[in-house]
Every structure is written in C-alpha cells, then in structure tokens.
C-alpha cells in the first residue's frame, strides 16, 4: 500500500485535471507570432535543456568514482520523469488558472490542451504557447536535479524518484505560480525574479539543506573527486546553457535579452575570479574546482537580477555572491552537516544573495516591466523590503515543505541506502553498472 501512495497521488491530480477543465485560460490569448522571438526561444529552450547534462558532469566529477554513474543519472532522469509530469499536469499547476494565488488549476492545460494555433501566454505575446510551456519545462527539469548534490552517495534511486515527483508538485509548481503567474501572490507583491533565483535556486538550496539534515552524514564523509575534468566540462556546459536560462527569460530577441546575456557573462566571470582570489587570500592554492564553483555561484546569483540590473552592478553581484558562498562553505565544513557538494552554500545562499541584490540594484530603466520600483541603491526601499519578506517566506516554505516530503517519502520507501550498499557504491548497488 505504501509503495502505491505516490501513484495514487498522481491519479488524484489526473482525475482533477479531467474533472475540472478550463473552457478558456484567463491568461491565454491569440496574438501575432514573431518569428525572431520564436527562433530565439527555440534556441534558448535547447540551451536550458543542455544545462541538465552539464549539471550531471559538474556533480559527477565531484563525487567518488564508485558513485559517478548514479550521481549523473539522478540529473538525467529528471529530463524524463519531470517532462512527463509537466506535460500531463505540471504546466497547469504552475501556469494554469489561478487558485488562491498559490497554485494553478490542473485542468487548464491538462495534457497540453489548448496549445494549437496562435495561442500565447499573456506575458510572452510573441511566441507560441506550446514553446513557452516547453521553455518553462526546462526550469522544472533542472531544479530537482540541483538538489541531488546534497544527498549524493547515499540515496536509494527508487525513493529519489518518489521525492522529486512530490517536490515538483508541492514545492516547485506553487513557487513558480506564485512568482511568475500574473495572479500569483509573490507576483502581485512585486517580487522580481527574472529567471529563477527564487523559484529554482532557493527552492533547490533549501531542499538540499533539508535533505542533508534528514539523511545525515555519509559513513565516510570524504571528498575525493573522481574527475576534475568532468567538473570543468560541466561548468562550460552550464555557463553556455545559462545564456538560454537568463537571456531566454526575456521571452524575445531584443535589448532586454542582450542585457541579460551581458549581465550573466559578467557576474559569472567576476564570481569565478573572486572565488579564486579569496582562496589565495586564505592561503590556498588556486584550483580548477574553485574557479568552476565560483563561476556557477555567479550564474546562480545573477539569475533573479539578470534582466533588472546594469552590467556594472552585475560585477558587484558576482563578487559578493562568491565571497559570501565561500564563507558559508567554510562554515558548513566545520559542522556535521554533510551537504556532499555544498548545494545549499552555493545554490541556496547564492540565490538568496541574488534576490537581495536585485532589491538593491534593480533599475527601472533596464526593464520597463519592473513596476515595483528601483532598488535600495537608488534610494527606494520598497523593493528591497518586499524581497526581504519574500525571502523569509519562501525559505520557510521550501525548507519545511521539503523536510516534510522527505519524511513522507521515507515512510513510503526508505531513502537511505544500507551501509553495505554505500560501501560498495551506488553505481553497483543501485544500477549494477561501473564507470
């Protein structure tokens, strides 16, 4: 019975989708499709998809050799499972007709209905609705994959599938709806999240911390990377794909996309160098791992701000995020928290820094869609205050919600591998494969 619970949950959502169909989605209209915008979003969608294999290499290179395949598969499987869930009802939960400002009607776009013709999303009026749905899918795919670095080397694969299914439905979809849907509660408050600092990185970061606390430490919490070259390759793929992640979130091929691309490049470069120099200042040798981690932290931090700040301020965001995340990594290493690949210090903290820095440096001349106001740097405290309140609320929701899902998942199917399976390695014990 316990093992059937997640499938029963999915069945309930499917039944709701069939029972409560939406005649016409409130935020879907007919419009003239722009071929240039459509072409850019097609490319961006492919770029964001590439980030998940990039993450697989990034994480896979960091773990011990006996866990490389398992770690990489935990990322890649999201491309399959989350896609199916998204097409059936996930997109509806995130972008369907509003229910209370926190979730969408699962019947609005059930099984991708209403996607044919010139239907468009109200905030992306020049690209086909189906393309918008597929672009947003890639964000939903990589978010649970980001969490895997926290519980790498000690989680049962079958239980992991249950957890990420529940996470997508109960954590990711409500946050996406609240932040990006015109009727969402955070959207109405004026929270600015250009490409997912709150929805993607903060949710994944807090879920990672919850996972590390729930699963506790590995038997041997050592850090011996299997392939640093994999980490370098993964960083390159992530940085490349992140242009679709951020610049694609302009949902058009125009000046805003160009600005987002520029701020993304600059913040990542600044963070990579800041991480290396900070390590050197502490007496450590400059390392490839440090440069790669710093670059990714910069990408994380600029994500919520990419289309709202100037290029010069993106330099500041990258440097600050790198130093703060590095300090949190140092703190974490002195505790008993076994966040294997430091997902919370890098993605969670990086996302929070980016959210707060958006509240400081947002400039309405960069993006006219910012109706909340300029940032604190320009003497306007409203946006920063809104972001500070949202940060607290989202953090509590993501952490407590994720911990509760871990408890539920563990009751259905034990999350932790046995000591023998951990010693053998997850590649063999979970997949009967070797590197």
Describe the 3D structure.
It is a single chain. The protein has 435 residues and is an all-alpha fold. The protein has one domain (33-414): Ammonium transporter fold (Orthogonal Bundle). It is 65% helix and 2% strand. A two-stranded antiparallel sheet has the order 1-4. Strands 2-3 form a two-stranded antiparallel ribbon. A hairpin with a 3-residue loop joins β2 and β3 (103-104). α12 (343-361) runs antiparallel to α13 (382-412). The longest helix has 31 residues, at 382-412. The two termini are 36 Å apart. The model has no long low-confidence stretch (mean pLDDT 93).
Largest sheet: 2 strands, antiparallel
Give the distance, in angstroms, between the N- and C-terminal Cα atoms: 36 Å
Please give the count of helices. 15
Succession of helices and strands: HEHHEEEHHHHHHHHHHHH
Helical/strand content category: mainly alpha
What percent of residues adopt helix (DSSP H or I)? 55-70%
Oligomer: single chain
State mean pLDDT (0 to 100 scale).
93
Short descriptors:
two-stranded antiparallel ribbon, 15 helices, mainly alpha, 435 residues, Ammonium transporter fold, globular
